[in-house]
Design goal:
This protein is an alpha/beta fold. It has 4 domains: 2-156, Glycogen Phosphorylase B (Rossmann fold); 176-325, 3-Layer(aba) Sandwich (Rossmann fold), CATH 3.40.50; 359-512 and 678-689, 3-Layer(aba) Sandwich (Rossmann fold); 524-674, Rossmann fold. Helix content is 44%, strand content 17%. The protein is built from 28 helices and 26 strands. Strands 1, 2, 3, 4, 5, 6, 7 and 8 form an 8-stranded parallel β-sheet that branches. Strand 10, helix 9 and strand 11 (230-232) form a beta-alpha-beta unit. The longest helix has 26 residues, at 320-345. It is globular.
Length: 692
């Protein structure tokens, strides 16, 4: 096999080199590599591949050789790992290689894309990427947001987690605190510097400011000066020596402080705990660490006090046992991806390489994807981002918010792909349904999957399912009868299913969300959801008027469906409209109170996400909400009662002690019953049980 791989990247960036080297190490035993390195400096290519492989500096020569081998049926193509731009400027590789990919696929040879993550989520470039994605045999992104946005592929840990020491840290005392910050961001605040310096003093750690990306050198000198630490300079063009020196430092490091993703990952693989005190609101570090099962790495520090930053730094430094466990799991997952790459390129070597993971079950989620309003989509996104230890996950997109012919074509594509999801003895089809069209559409895939012999799980969502089941009993019986197990979010939903299917296996399992990031709290109340009477927006606006808040603001965030509810808003109330999920979570992290006065719900994700971000939550006793907020974990008010809601708002806004008590109780309830650590092991056991 002749394997063609682009090897270009940021040559002054050790992280880029690590990613490409790791992938090429996977590929070297599987065929002769043809690596395009462009204008790389001397020694760059030699650090990536051995002399038996072919290095090209001319793109034309590399592409011509690839086409010739593709026509002869000898070529495979592997996309480079790292960050890709889903923008018009970033489509060069994905469009220019289409003729090459088509030639490779015509001769039934593999195309592989592993270890990449997106930057710049633009819709038209996403559509233009689809032909390239459709011709790829294995797609594994390094973060869930990329997978959800593009609608194809699964999630894997970043390739750099596979580097470093096999046992990165024992009981030895570590004496260093490493800092390294991006030069293309603002200089950190005075509180940032004070927190890092005081923490280092408290823990008796020496501060060392390092350069892992050459262009950050001046910023690293500034950090060393401001923190009174030592500066470790860039070692010229000798990338191997510089990386070796950095790793030796990381092996002595207790905690690494950086907003560079691969500074933190490289430090983790040498035994350092990661902490990212950001000067912006980027989610890049969090979403890439989440794919490796490591949550809560970053803290946006703009406007945050020294004490909050220092406390977060202390928490990060003490997180190593949890990080170490996640690192071991991430490396196992990388071995599984490597085995599948081997199976595609050299099937004759696959049994020896992939035997440990050959029987790993796959869960195919069927439903919506990406930045689409609605809790069900966020549930699927959260599942995909969690590193389950036993199962691997993939996504079969049946809808994405589009309607008409586009929506029908997407559903038809999902239906056609269903027979080819994998071996029946180790494939689980987990279908996410609500009511109305969703139940009919995704329900058809559920029934089809069952007829094909797959193990099936129906995850029920939607606030009106009980009424829907009462109005369409025959459809519900026929559809849910095809599920080996039904997952319900509330006791009412479970009872409705059992009323129609007495012999069904119905499990009551809550949704789960990751913990939020610490931010300075403001006098801010947030509503999140569709602006409708069902969600109680009319009651909320009236209650706000009656509460007469002093100095507080209310943000009504969500798609405006019934516009008459927000045409004449009182002072202090804003309607930002539908927000992307990350923006809504940032709003909750800043807010102190979250409110959802719904008249009808199942188990709204907004309530759990608010608890995870230490809000005091006011809601109503409908659906599964009492099971979450009961016992003092929140405040429950009668649906439709504006006076009662106004009193609840006024009490929390005026009484700081009561506010603190409610928010603390809510966060404790979230941690013990609804956090990812509490819920996802239950879900994984449930999925696996249907294979029996």
């Amino acid at each position: 096999m002749e394997i063609y791989v682009p090897g270009i990247g940021q040559y002054d960036n050790i992280g880029d080199i690590i990613l490409r080297r790791r992938l090429l190490r996977w590929l070297e035993p599987l065929g002769r590599l043809h690596v395009f390195v462009g204008n790389a400096p001397a020694g760059y290519a030699e650090s990536l591949v051995g002399p038996e492989h072919v290095v090209y500096r001319s793109f034309t020569a590399w592409y011509r050789a690839a086409l010739a081998d593709a026509v002869r049926g000898k070529a495979a193509y592997v996309f480079k790992p790292g960050e890709i731009q889903i923008t018009f400027a970033g489509l060069k590789e994905h469009l220019s290689t289409l003729p090459l990919l088509a030639a490779i696929k015509l001769r039934r040879k593999p195309v592989i894309r592993v270890g990449a993550g997106a930057r710049g989520f633009e819709r038209i470039p996403k559509l233009l990427m689809q032909p390239s994605l459709a011709m790829t045999d294995l797609i594994a992104w390094r973060d869930a947001r990329t997978a959800a946005f593009l609608g194809r592929g699964e999630v894997m840990p970043d390739l750099a987690f596979g580097e470093g020491e096999a046992e990165p840290r024992g009981d030895e005392k570590r004496s260093l605190l490493i800092v390294s910050m991006r030069s293309d961001r603002a200089i950190p605040s005075d509180a940032w510097f004070a927190a890092v310096r005081s923490f280092a003093d408290d823990r008796e750690l020496d501060v060392v400011s390092v350069v892992q990306v050459e262009r950050d050198a001046e910023r690293s000198r500034l950090l060393a000066d401001r923190l009174g630490g030592r500066y470790h300079e860039w070692s010229g063009d000798d990338h191997e020596r510089h990386e070796r020196e950095l790793r030796e430092l990381y092996q002595q490091t207790s905690v690494a402080v950086s907003d560079r993703l691969h500074v933190l990952i490289t430090a983790v693989t040498e035994g350092a705990a990661p902490f990212a005190p950001l000067v912006d609101d980027s989610d890049k570090i969090d979403r890439h660490f989440a794919a490796a099962g490591i949550e809560g790495v970053s803290l946006p520090t703009s406007g945050v006090s020294e004490g909050v930053i220092r406390d977060a730094l202390a928490k990060a430094a003490d997180s190593w046992p949890r990080v170490q466990s996640a690192l071991a799991t991430a490396r196992t997952q990388l071995e599984s991806v490597q085995a599948r790459v081997t199976a595609l390129l050299r099937p004759d070597l696959a049994p020896a390489v992939s035997a440990p993971s050959a029987a790993q079950p796959t869960v195919w989620h069927v439903g919506r994807k990406g930045e689409i309003a609605g809790g069900m989509t966020q549930v699927v996104n959260a599942y995909l981002s969690w590193p389950f230890g036993t199962v691997r996950q993939r996504l079969l997109v049946s809808r994405n918010g589009t309607k008409g012919l586009s929506g029908m074509a997407l559903f038809a594509s999902a239906l056609v792909r269903t027979p080819f999801l994998g071996r029946r003895d180790r494939t689980i089809v987990a279908v996410h349904l609500s009511q109305q069209g969703s139940f009919v559409r995704e329900g058809l895939i559920l029934r089809f999957a069952k007829r094909l012999g797959y193990s099936t799980v129906a995850h029920l969502h939607g606030s009106s399912f009980v009424d829907f089941a009462a109005g369409s009993p025959a459809l519900v019986r026929k559809t849910l009868g095809a599920a080996d197990v039904v997952v319900a979010l509330s006791a009412e939903t479970k009872a409705a299913v059992l009323g129609l299917l007495p012999d069904a296996r119905v499990e009551l399992v809550p949704n789960a969300v990751p913990e939020g990031r610490a931010r300075a709290k403001e006098q801010l109340v947030v509503f999140g959801g569709g602006v409708t009477r069902r969600k109680g927006v009319d009651v909320l606006v009236e209650a706000w008027k009656r509460a007469e808040p002093d100095g507080w603001e209310l943000h009504i965030a969500g798609p405006i469906i019934e516009s008459d509810l927000v045409t004449d808003l009182p002072e202090g109330v804003s309607k930002p409209g539908a927000l992307e999920h990350d923006a809504l979570m940032t709003l909750l992290e800043r807010s102190t109170i979250a409110v959802l006065p719904s008249r009808d719900e199942a188990m709204p994700m907004f309530v759990l996400e608010a608890l995870a971000r230490k809000n005091a939550v006011i809601s109503t006793p409908v659906g599964g909400i009492p099971g979450v907020l009961g016992g003092g974990a929140g405040v429950l008010v009668t649906p439709g009662d504006a006076d009662e809601l106004a009193t609840a708002l006024r009490t929390l806004m005026d009484d700081s002690s009561e506010l603190s008590t409610v928010s603390a109780a809510g966060f404790d309830r979230f941690s013990s019953e609804f956090s990812a650590d509490a819920v996802y092991p239950r879900v994984e056991r449930l999925w696996l049980s249907v294979l029996d």
